[in-house]
Write the structure tokens for this entry.
Amino acid sequence: MTIGVFMLITLHFYFIDWLFYLAMILLIFDAIEESIMVLLIPEWENDIKGIYWLWKRKR
């Protein structure tokens, strides 16, 4: 979502440094979350929202 906002603002107006860094940080956190979920789930499953819901379901 933030990378899309960043791209729209950059293409229509001008480059904003802090928005770029915010988008990259959020992208890194998302990639880390997806990697952790892949390691926690033993087999493929559909419609898992995130780590919180995965841990909540396992309890």
Observations:
- The radius of gyration is 16 Å.
- Helices lie at 2-12, 17-40, 51-58.
